[in-house]
Automatic annotation (TrEMBL):
Coiled coil: none
MF (Gene Ontology): acyltransferase activity; peptidoglycan L,D-transpeptidase activity
Pfam families: Big_10, YkuD
GO biological process, any: peptidoglycan-protein cross-linking
Organism this protein belongs to: Nonomuraea aridisoli
Domain of life: Bacteria
Name of protein: L,D-TPase catalytic domain-containing protein
SUPFAM superfamilies documented for this protein: L,D-transpeptidase catalytic domain-like
């Protein structure tokens, strides 16, 4: 949640004081090596010697983390990636062998591919969105990796929920939310106003592109510390408790309830980069949100980077597959 994914992004003004909680690691306990008893001058000595000579089962690679969580913990959106993090680096010459042992089986299959984003992290994305209301089984057959005989195979089943696809038009100042293909709600919004350029990037602009929801908090603390402003006397200083915050990038963008200024919603862009919504609209959006839901934002000159959060849909299918080792 890593060289590619932890690149230093130019963050937006909605950057939160806290960061999303890490997903619990997948248990991957090693099989203990057999301990031979001390040989004694008895008839059991040949047996003990045989046990002592038994080969030690080795473990060279295990899984440290899988995102998202399993079917009993959460339902995920139709854009969700499978993010697998190993406990150590995988050398380039071994990546194809490892990738070949990672399987994804869906009740409603769609084409997909893995992409290595670092030596420890590989991500699975589909060519088109997952079909909603189904189960997806991930299996890592690491016991079949040469020299990895002590490792255990790992499985996780994901539950794909309702298809939530939101389209944010920053020029018309509206967010349309489609659930299972049908328009469920229109929410007046206010996006980034622009006007603060850092390193050639207007960080007050909301990024245009295909975002995925990454997590949510009923109340998120947002501060100006992301741009080095920590003095309360500074005109740019702020520290706000923001309700119904749904995170959509690593650079601090959220869909959240507007902190006042409701008269701007549906009329003009006045935020520091986030998508502000009405209290009722923000709460409703928060309630239905699943990790991996799609949020398409249009109308700004600032493009979303493909590795800013879970923004993997910013790459077309040909570009995505180039990251596979197979």
């Amino acid at each position: 949640m890593l060289p590619a994914l932890l690149a230093l992004f130019t963050v937006t003004a909605c950057a939160a004081e806290s960061v999303p909680a890490p997903v619990p690691a997948v248990p991957a306990a090693a099989t203990a090596a057999p301990v031979a008893p001390t040989p004694s001058a008895t008839a059991d000595a040949p047996v003990a010697a045989a046990k002592a000579a038994a080969p030690v089962r080795k473990i060279k690679l295990r899984i440290a983390d899988i995102t998202p969580m399993g079917e009993k913990v959460e339902k995920v959106g139709v854009g969700f990636p499978i993010i697998v993090t190993f406990d150590r680096d995988v050398k380039d010459r071994h990546k194809a062998d490892v990738e070949a042992l990672l399987e994804v089986q869906a009740d409603k299959p769609v084409e997909g591919a893995w992409r290595w984003v670092s030596d420890r992290k590989v991500i699975y994305r589909t060519k088109t969105y997952w079909k909603p209301h189904q189960k997806v089984l991930f299996t890592a057959r690491l016991s079949e990796l040469p020299g990895n005989t002590g490792a255990k195979d790992v499985t996780r089943r994901f539950a794909v929920g309702t298809s939530n696809v939101s389209v944010v038009d920053t020029r018309k100042h509206v967010m349309k939310v489609y659930r299972d293909g049908k328009l469920a709600r229109k929410i007046p919004i206010s996006a980034g106003s622009g006007g603060l350029v850092r390193n050639g990037v207007d960080v007050y602009l909301t990024t245009s592109g295909v975002h995925l929801t990454m997590g949510k908090k009923a109340v998120e603390t947002m501060t100006s510390s992301w741009m080095g402003v920590t003095d309360p006397k500074d005109p740019l200083y702020y520290k706000l408790e923001i309700p119904w915050a749904v995170r959509i990038s690593d650079s601090g963008e959220y869909v959240h309830q507007s902190a006042g200024d409701y008269h701007f919603l549906g009329r003009s862009n006045q935020s520091h980069g986030c998508v502000r919504a009405t209290p009722a609209g923000a709460k409703w959006f928060y309630t239905i949100s699943q990790r991996g839901d799609v949020v398409k934002i249009t109308g700004t000159k600032r493009k979303l980077e493909w590795n800013n959060g879970w923004s993997y849909w910013q790459l077309n299918w040909t570009q995505w597959k180039k990251g596979s080792a197979l």
